[in-house]
Design brief:
Elements (H helix, E strand, L loop, with lengths): L2 H4 L3 H17 L2 H6 L18 H15 L4 E7 L23 E7 L2 E7 L6 H19 L7 H14 L3 H8 L1 E8 L3 E8 L6 H15 L3 H7 L2 H17 L3 H4 L14 H4 L7 H5 L7 H5 L6 E7 L2 H23 L3 H17 L2 E7 L21 E6 L5 H15 L1
Helix pairs in contact: 2-6, 2-8, 4-5, 5-6, 5-7, 6-8, 7-8, 8-10, 15-16
Protein name: Peptidase MA superfamily protein
Keywords: Membrane, Transmembrane, Transmembrane helix
Organism: Nannocystis punicea
């Protein structure tokens, strides 16, 4: 790939640098140079994600911490038709797009409201990048940075995601090649190219390279987490900036590097959220029913008739202890009774491995199923058969795919 193909057009490079400099004049330049570049790695997102409004809320609150936004947050899930802003929301503060996967619905009384499409809940990379963009909308609204021109505001919001440290997330989402298995009676593969965001992948990678070039650090970690095409755009942008803009930091209006505060601590920013997961999970009952029932729609799940090994071991421990006590009592009567007690204990422990009623094979669901159930009432998965243990679900799904391929 030539440098010409990897870089934005010359006028767009000038546009990006000019608006980045303007953003640094309007907002806190220290955030641009001190906040960590958020990477799509578990250590940056330590919170447990669930396919629900609560799971999305956790993600928003984590992004708020990276963006240094001290706001409350509310999340509304929707399917198909997005919600509309309610109440007295300032002009320009809400960004509502027809068919959007995520929405910023404005700030009222210190609480930012967001919407997220249920279709995103099975796409961690997509929902994280989408919410990063919507959190950037909230940041611009909170700091009165938004402009009236809708298209310009969307591009500036993408640029703001880079300023906030979300550049790798946005760049990766700007162009994604995805493959997935589709279950519609048979199994088949589907490839798609998906675009999220408003700036092009080259433009986002150029803005990310400008941030890292100005900092003088972070190149290797960012490049390692970029998709293949984005990594090539990023390298080309860095080469161009190092050659053509060696004094970029001062051109952006940044003070000398010696006066910069120390970088923000990733350990501090990734500490546990104020409420525990258990407290957050208490809110799950308030999530829309479709958020629960849409988890595995179109995917095969199985009836599990035996307990998992972990469950069986936990139940076997107290039975084993009781068996030992019984053996001690039996020894006081006659040694032959010890063998009888051991045999009975073994039978009971073996029986613990069976369930009288089957459950869904998905670990996050485990809803009770009937013998005739065709659809799991908990996660919406298609009941494709019976298995002995939940650990066998992946092998059973693979067997289904192979069988469907052979029949075609």
């Amino acid at each position: 790939m030539s440098e010409f193909e990897a870089l934005p057009a010359e006028e767009r490079r000038a546009w990006l640098l000019a608006h980045l400099a303007e953003l640094l004049r309007q907002a806190d330049w220290q955030h641009f140079v001190c906040t960590p570049i958020v990477l799509p790695r578990p250590e940056f997102f330590p919170d447990r994600f669930t396919r629900s409004a609560t799971g999305v809320l956790r993600l928003v609150r984590r992004l708020f911490r990276y963006a240094d936004l001290e706001l409350g947050a509310e999340v509304e899930l929707y399917e198909g038709r997005p919600p509309t802003p309610e109440g007295p929301v300032a002009l320009g503060a809400a960004h509502h797009h027809e068919g959007a996967a995520g929405l910023f619905l404005g700030i009222e009384a210190g609480v930012a409201r967001f919407g997220a499409d249920l279709a995103l809940l099975d796409d961690p990379g997509g929902i994280t990048a989408t919410l990063a963009h919507e959190v950037a909308h909230a940041f611009r609204s909170h700091h009165a940075l938004w402009v009236d021109d809708h298209d310009l505001e969307e591009e500036l919001t993408d640029l703001t995601t880079v300023y906030l440290g979300f550049g790798v997330l946005s760049a990766n989402a700007a162009l994604r090649h995805r493959s997935e298995q589709v279950h519609d009676g048979t199994f088949r593969s589907r490839w798609s190219v998906q675009r999220l965001g408003y700036l092009s992948p080259q433009e986002l990678c150029f803005a990310l390279a400008a941030q890292i070039h100005a900092r003088g650090a972070g190149r290797e970690a960012a490049q390692a987490c970029l998709e293949t095409n984005q990594a090539s755009y990023f390298r080309a942008a860095l080469r161009w900036l190092e050659r053509e803009r060696p004094e970029l930091a001062s051109e952006l209006g940044l003070p000398p590097r010696a006066s910069w505060p120390p970088p923000d601590s990733v350990a501090t920013l990734t500490r546990a959220l104020d409420d525990t997961h258990d407290e957050l999970e208490g809110d799950e009952a308030g999530a829309p029913a479709t958020a629960v029932k849409a988890e595995n729609v179109g995917r095969p799940v199985f009836r599990v008739w035996r307990r998992s090994r972990a469950d069986q071991a936990m139940l076997a421990l107290p039975v084993g202890i009781l068996g030992l006590l019984a053996c001690a009592g039996a020894a006081m009567i006659h040694d032959a009774w010890i063998l009888v007690v051991i045999a009975l204990t073994g039978v009971v422990i073996r029986g613990l491995g069976r369930r009288r009623r089957p459950r869904c094979s998905e670990p996050e669901c485990q809803a009770l199923l009937t013998r005739a159930a065709e659809r799991c009432p908990g996660c919406g998965g298609t009941v494709a058969g019976d298995i002995d243990r939940a650990e066998q679900r992946l092998a059973a799904a693979e067997a289904l795919r192979l069988r469907a391929g052979a029949e075609r």
